[in-house]
Amino acid sequence: MGKNSASDLPQRFSAYVENLAEAAGHSDRHDPLKSYCTGLLLPGERKSVEPMAARLAPQNVRRMHQSLHHLVADAPWSDEAVLDRSLDTVIPAMQSEAPVVAWIVDDTGFPKKGRESVGVARQYCGQLGKADNCRVAVSLSISTAKASMPVAYRLYLPENWIEDRERRKKTGVPDEIQFQTKPEIALEQIQRTRQRGMPSGVILADAGYGADTRFRTELTKMEMAYVVGIQSTARVWKPGQGPQPARARKRSSGRAPKRLQRDANHQPLSVKELAVSLSAEVWEKVTWRQGVSKKLRSRFAAVRVRPAHRDWERSEPHPEEWLLIEWPTGESEPTRYWLSTVPASTPLIDLVRLAKHRWIIERDYLELKQELGLGHYEGRGWRGFHHHATLCIAAYGFLIAERSLFSPSARIGNLGLPSPELPSGFRPRGAPHPSRAA
Fold first, then answer.
1. Does residue 289 lie within any of the structural domains?
2. CA 354 – CA 179 distance, rounded (Å)
């Protein structure tokens, strides 16, 4: 997709969605899929099926509603195939502006009442900042310095959902879906993205993933460098230290001891304890990017350490990694910690920029939720949840590919797609009655 004039944008969008429709398979799905993507990008507060149908076909809302609903809730097309087709356009467009620097793992929550909609459970919801009834999806995004795009997206199912056969059947959860932690889902997404040959980048994730030792270990096995958050209680050895070697053999016969040792006088410490013990000259003020109103700046230290997780079960110590610590001026203690396997020669500024680069996907989720209705799907099923999300992401991908003409922070209504008038008196289900509106 080249850089053309803004007046050509509707034609480029038409070609883009035609390509997506081909990936959905059967020709009966082509027109509904193109209509669905158009509906997601038209102005409007609600992007569920009913209000989109009213915007797209005000003279025949019912027929359009049936068509869109069947496409998203029932039709058996592949989410991966459609999203892959989108990425064939979007990722090269992103790379034409800047190289890929990171793969970003994250999850996002959607408040949801009741218990019958797939995946709804009482769990932590980032959107609310507390535990409540919600659904949570795990995603993987590919990012350059200027843009990012989700490349994988899957609903997390808590164990009580996995074990509830009746709810699984009602919501169409596939038989092959078994319980996986969020880090396990993320590892699968990373593995598939690698197999697809996507341009590589450093893995970035918050402490919800970085605290999982197996997650970090598997990334190292894949030879993928990471910068991941960890908790203040994570234990490491002081710089230059590690566990003691295995005990010497006491007898001439039998196996020689192999496991590493600790004793009362030789123990690892928490990263918080290590941070407060560091000398003043280790800390540096770093400015990593320009914010909305000012430059973003804080105080950091980076030291080489060996993680200590269950190393008494190992015959070799964990390899050295970077421990990056943020301790803003004026705070009584450090606020954030990261472990990283980027090269030992990496300058502090580059390490900080990578750790802080996760911010870029906040823009994606803001747009996907507020403008494209990522959380607006009202159905209860597994297929519909993922089909709606896939089409939201694919529609968003068009905006990313067009970013030289269309700012992702602008309103969707600026795209210039034709938008018919709503039917007179139309009010979607759940909308407040005009006489009761605040």
1. yes
2. 31
